[in-house]
Automatic annotation (TrEMBL):
Keyword entries, A-Z: Membrane, Transmembrane, Transmembrane helix
Transmembrane segments: 25-48, 69-93, 123-141, 162-189, 195-219
Highest rank taxon of the organism: Eukaryota
Protein's organism: Adineta steineri
Coiled coil: none
Protein name (Swiss-Prot/TrEMBL): G-protein coupled receptors family 1 profile domain-containing protein
Length: 251
């Protein structure tokens, strides 16, 4: 929600700037330009944590502390601090500047090294860890003997299904990030900042966030059940004509 709120404020500033030429440059502008890479990095770390939990259940079921609630409460805090530290490099390099054509602060697309740093730490590390976890689980399951009990096989099949759902969601996010990488490559070659770079980028980001919400509902049975109950509860059911007639007769 915080990430979507910041992106929405960027779009509002762009519209107001183009219509009325407002200047939104301020001390808070740099802070707002620094927050989106941190938040998107934490979103990807959340998928890593889900995959890591399944890894612990499948490969290391006997190590209880790897499956404790306390560990998965501490992990996001550690990842948040680590992401803030890594992303702070763009502040020390003064890479976050006010973009006069877009009317908000962010790293210019022509600042190739800072943009690569954001891309690498925003989702590059997370995608690499996710790939390693998936490969590790696949290798482990293939090495298992065929004499496993039915309960263990069912549990492992369920865990692998969840891992695949996580990878589908992350693959969806990566595919929608391809336009931004395309602009980055073009800027690297031409050394020019194109006017529509960030509008196109944030448009696909908005689609990806909406897609993540929908996929999360579809792939989470408990959440899907809650949503379906809400929909069914709010649905207006027309009364049968025979039922209406019987009610009138009784009156």
């Amino acid at each position: 929600l915080a990430y979507i709120g910041i992106i929405a404020s960027f779009n509002i500033q762009t519209v107001l700037g183009n219509l009325y030429e407002y200047d939104f440059n301020s001390s808070w502008c740099v802070v707002l330009g620094y927050l989106p890479p941190i938040l998107i990095g934490c979103i990807y770390w959340a998928f890593v944590n889900q995959a890591f939990f399944r890894l612990c259940r499948v490969v290391y079921p006997n190590i209880k502390w790897l499956q404790s609630y306390r560990l998965f409460i501490i992990l996001p805090l550690i990842e948040l601090i680590l992401t803030c530290i890594l992303m702070s490099l763009i502040l020390f390099l003064h890479s976050v500047v006010y973009l006069p054509t877009d009317y908000y602060c962010f790293v210019p697309i022509t600042n190739i090294y800072s943009m690569l740093w954001l891309a690498f730490n925003g989702y590059g590390n997370q995608i690499g860890i996710l790939s390693f976890i998936y490969i590790r689980i696949t290798i482990f399951l293939r090495r298992q003997a065929n004499t496993q009990t039915l309960i263990i096989k069912q549990r492992q099949d369920r865990d692998v299904l969840v891992i695949r759902r996580i990878l589908i969601t992350v693959s969806f996010l990566i595919s929608l990030g391809m336009p931004a990488m395309g602009f980055l490559v073009v800027s690297l070659i031409t050394n020019k900042d194109y006017l529509l770079t960030f509008p196109v980028l944030f448009f696909f980001v908005g689609i990806s966030m909406a897609g993540v919400c929908i996929l999360t509902i579809i792939f989470t049975p408990q959440l899907k059940k809650i949503v379906m109950k809400i929909i069914q509860h709010n649905r207006v059911v027309p009364l049968n004509s025979s039922l209406i007639g019987s009610i009138q007769t009784r009156q």
